[in-house]
Amino acid sequence: MDNQHLVPAAVLAAKNGVRFPNESEAYRSARDALLAEEIELRRHIERVARQRRALPPGGEVTKDYRFEGSDGPISFAELFADKDTLIVYSYMFGPQRERPCPMCTSLLSAWDGEVPDIQQRAALAVVARSPIERLLAFKKERGWHHLPLYSDMTDDYSRDYHAIGSDGSDGSDGAAFNVFTRRDGTIRHFWSEEMGEATADPGEDPRGAPDLMPLWTVLDATPEGRAPDWYPKLSY
């Protein structure tokens, strides 16, 4: 996309022509101004995505990380299956944790139905530090059908790719989203979500952009927005 040849967002917004029953001129004027900002946001998201895709090669993965899946032990390289790209989500469900993280669970519940689509383009693995039997039991309880769950058998992967603190305690369990590539037989780290406490803006929870959770995207379209004192639960 050549930004120099883009039609100004305000011009596109003016061409929109959408109207709703009984709306006021004040509403339409404000809505058109918002639409221009939404167009700019869409363009910025694409600029960031292009910048991400243009990253130089990341660090080579040299450790032989081992996992346990529903079919038994599996190596990191085998997680790629027949794909050249691997997405790994680190799930906050460590062995000392009574129940998994509700936020992670909400995200993964939304992803479950998308797995067959994602796997057309990339391999996907959801990794947690609990034993595989525990992960599969929760998968059944939650009614997930497609999410490929794996246990990090040694904690090595989780520690190296920032899903656990250096002390190894359950309290330091963290979520992480990493993407890896395999090119000419070499596996490299491509990108990781790095926005967190250190990069958070005042009065907002630390979160990445674009947000991986459909829940927040939907609530952002409501007048109440995402309440600072509300988070998803495992059950209601």
Tell me what you see in this structure:
This protein has 236 residues and is of the alpha/beta class. The protein has helices at residues 9-14, 25-53, 102-112, 115-118, 132-142, 156-160, 214-219; strands at 66-69, 72-75, 85-90, 123-128, 149-152, 176-183, 186-192. Strands 2-1-5-4-3-6-7 form a seven-stranded mixed β-sheet.
Give the SSE layout.
Blueprint: H1 9-14, H2 25-53, E1 66-69, E2 72-75, E3 85-90, H3 102-112, H4 115-118, E4 123-128, H5 132-142, E5 149-152, H6 156-160, E6 176-183, E7 186-192, H7 214-219
Parallel strand pairs: 3-4, 4-5
Antiparallel strand pairs: 1-2, 1-5, 3-6, 6-7
Uncertain regions spanning at least 5 consecutive residues? none
Task: Count the DSSP helices.
Answer: 7
Structural class: alpha/beta
Quick one: biggest sheet? 7 strands, mixed
Helix content: 25-40%
**Terminal CA distance:** 45 Å
Strand content: 15-25%
Widest sheet, order of strands:
2-1-5-4-3-6-7
Overall pLDDT level: 93
Q: How many strands?
A: 7
> What are the secondary-structure elements, in order, as H or E?
HHEEEHHEHEHEEH
Shape: globular
Radius of gyration over C-alpha positions, nearest whole angstrom:
21 Å
Question: What does this entry show, briefly?
Answer:
The chain is an alpha/beta fold and 236 residues long. The chain has helices at residues 9-14, 25-53, 102-112, 115-118, 132-142, 156-160, 214-219; strands at residues 66-69, 72-75, 85-90, 123-128, 149-152, 176-183, 186-192.
